[in-house]
């Protein structure tokens, strides 16, 4: 049969030699006589004599190698019809409005008036295409991809256990909550949930590897061997996170923040700033800067703390410079973190926003972390105003008015701090030997 199986009377009659291109005559195949280039030459990428240059039309055609198209589509194969092999739809399926699917790719194509032509792929590329295009229905394709990604990211977990063992991993987790978690930019993990997930094997291996790489400096303080191993873990985690940018998850952002903190501790400032910007964009993609009331309280609080950790780290190291700022207050539509007791015991409470419209009365549900975020935001505006005055960007009179406004705001903020968080001899001694000493000192040092 011909390449085009439509019942056209002109196809049934014997064509004159002038209606057959030189390539089809040389190959002894039927030609459709299209003066703009026949279909056979088009799909096999020959230069049809109908469209050849005038100087070459009188030349005898060169011997042509036999070119076969890729595998026939499923529809043509079932009906034992010749398939044009055109992508994304063969000629027959396009004319009849059928769904065209090739067995090597498993891809069902929609109707497209212009079929793209592709050359046969080499075996490695063909294998890569087959692995990336699943023949399962769309509902199952996502599940298969998710399970494949889960199996991929669990490789570091198995490698980690084989290198240092479960007892050492638990030691790193404990070191994290003792030395790192009290920092205002790292209080986004719920201790009980994390330990439970790790014991069940559900904790993200990238998070686990980042925790071990970050806390190794606290466990093995003067060990170059352990330092190199921890650096290797951080590099592997960062590399895998970069390969997963197309499908970010909340766990990926948690791992990113741990990698960023390691860059900070190791004084890799440029990589730290770039990674902060990347983490902020990923958080915006997952809409962590918005409240999600559909989630349980604990999940909501973890999302808030994760977003505020990005804001805190970005504010600390941008130094009031707009060109280094990736996460601004204007983009955050979430409430402040709650106190540690409510978070650790999963006690639902409602907190305030960063800049409340009116002064709150009674006991506030926010903790030291929330007050640290407020003072850091004021500190950021002070730094920006300082740059404005130094660079003469606004009249001095206008800047003095802004200075007075900030001074009044700081006084109101100081009066809003509960007595248990104010700096005096009693409160200092109470916080000195507890994990809250770091945010307590930071609150009053800013």
UniProtKB/TrEMBL annotation:
It is found in: Nucleus. SUPFAM superfamilies: Zn2/Cys6 DNA-binding domain (SSF57701). Its main location: nucleus. PANTHER family: ZN(II)2CYS6 TRANSCRIPTION FACTOR (EUROFUNG), ZN(II)2CYS6 TRANSCRIPTION FACTOR (EUROFUNG)-RELATED. This is Zn(2)-C6 fungal-type domain-containing protein. The keyword Transcription applies. It comes from the Eukaryota. Keywords: DNA-binding, Metal-binding, Nucleus, Transcription, Transcription regulation. It comes from Aspergillus pseudodeflectus. Gene3D superfamilies: Zn(2)-C6 fungal-type DNA-binding domain (4.10.240.10). Residues 104-148 are annotated as: Disordered. SMART domains: GAL4 (SM00066). The keyword rRNA-binding does not apply. It holds the Pfam family Zn_clus. Residues 20-50, 72-102 form the Zn(2)-C6 fungal-type domain. Residues 107-134 have a biased composition (Polar residues). Coiled coil: none annotated.
